[in-house]
């Protein structure tokens, strides 16, 4: 089939990585998959023209509102993948909620990353419950073997002997929902006590106004560094070199960065929100914190307890291998897309 796949494709963001991975799954099954950025289209009329020009037979959208609303009313079958902000934020806005309900009425299937996301969707739109499937994100990491850690530290202005250095890495697009400033004050205080601990924030400048705020705050904070977005293979290599991966988001669908860190055998400290708690079991596969002070307490504990670090890493890696198989994800999407062939009754 010739498939149109709409997603938000800001470079080096979780949605973009997920979309490209799903596209690879579909192309491996022999489909032609046109991956397009939903933000490049002003409305359904532009999508209609694309469908006609490219002889599109079916479609898929990642994000129920941003992508899904553009697929309504074209007479081609389509499926939906929930993103995260659609269920955590857009759902609270009346007009968007109504639009998303209408999208689900037309969709042949919808994919949620977690059982809790499925439950949230089912409560909002009971009519769609029979078409919602759960498929966790499949994880595959490929660190750049040529990555130069010393050069990175120099670029980040971290002048420390690497023997006793502890770098905590926060990967996120600079926007408010990711809350990159949540831990900055507490971390800066800790750095004054222990100058060998650093927090590095890496990610694209998504929200220009908020980015200015982040830059100004980080500039004044000791022990905290801000680094521009990086290619995926360099990012994976960086994760592997860091002491721990941090997530401080206000809301998450399913954080690929957390799962990738587990796959790369790096411990995870994550803010205790539903999306993170769905993949991180406290003191088993990672550590969950509820405020900046608790983050520092847990981070200090992790630094001083190598046995705990070893246990979290082993459990995290086993969890990813068991529940986030790239192969199982491929099989699921290839099966679901087959339901877009022919009429709904087939």
How is this structure best described in words?
With 346 residues, the chain is of the alpha/beta class. It contains 14 helices and 12 strands. It has helices spanning 14-28, 44-53, 85-88, 94-106, 115-124, 149-155, 184-193, 208-220, 232-241, 256-263, 274-277, 292-304, 306-323, 326-338, and strands at 2-7, 32-37, 58-62, 78-81, 109-112, 132-134, 166-171, 197-202, 224-227, 244-247, 268-271, 287-289. A 6-stranded parallel sheet has the order 2-1-3-4-5-6, with helices on both faces. A 6-stranded parallel sheet has the order 9-8-7-10-11-12, sandwiched between helices. Helix 8 (208-220) links the parallel strand 8 and strand 9 (224-227). Helix 10 packs across helix 13 (306-323). The longest helix has 18 residues, at 306-323. The two termini are 16 Å apart.
């Amino acid at each position: 089939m010739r498939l149109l796949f709409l997603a938000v494709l800001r470079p080096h963001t979780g949605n973009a990585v997920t979309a490209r991975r799903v596209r690879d799954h579909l192309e491996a099954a022999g489909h032609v998959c046109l991956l397009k950025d939903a933000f490049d289209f002003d409305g359904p009329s532009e999508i209609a023209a694309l469908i006609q020009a490219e002889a599109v037979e079916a479609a898929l959208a990642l994000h129920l509102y941003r992508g899904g609303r553009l697929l309504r009313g074209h007479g081609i079958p389509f499926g939906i993948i929930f993103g995260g902000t659609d269920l955590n934020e857009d759902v609270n806005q009346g007009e968007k909620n109504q639009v998303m309900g209408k999208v689900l009425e037309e969709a042949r299937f919808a994919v949620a990353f977690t059982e809790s996301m499925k439950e949230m969707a089912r409560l909002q739109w009971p009519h769609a419950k029979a078409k919602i499937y759960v498929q966790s994100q499949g994880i595959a990491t490929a660190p750049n073997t040529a990555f130069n850690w010393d050069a990175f530290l120099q670029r980040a202005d971290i002048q420390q002997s690497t023997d006793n250095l502890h770098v905590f890495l926060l990967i996120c697009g600079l926007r408010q929902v990711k809350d990159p400033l949540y831990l900055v004050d507490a971390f800066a205080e800790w750095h004054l006590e222990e100058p060998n601990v650093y927090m590095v924030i890496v990610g694209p400048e998504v929200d220009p106004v908020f980015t200015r705020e982040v830059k100004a705050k980080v500039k004044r904070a000791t022990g905290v560094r801000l680094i521009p977005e990086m290619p995926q293979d360099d990012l994976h290599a960086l994760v592997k070199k860091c002491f721990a991966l941090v997530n401080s988001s206000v809301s998450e669908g399913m954080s690929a960065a957390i799962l990738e860190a587990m796959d790369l055998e790096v411990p995870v400290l994550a803010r205790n929100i539903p999306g993170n708690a769905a993949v991180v079991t406290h003191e088993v596969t990672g550590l969950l914190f509820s405020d900046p002070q608790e983050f520092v307490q847990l981070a200090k504990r992790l630094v001083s307890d190598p046995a705990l670090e070893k246990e979290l890493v082993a459990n995290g890696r086993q969890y990813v291998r068991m529940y986030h198989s790239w192969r199982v994800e491929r099989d699921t999407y290839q099966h679901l897309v087959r339901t877009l062939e022919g009429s709904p009754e087939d």
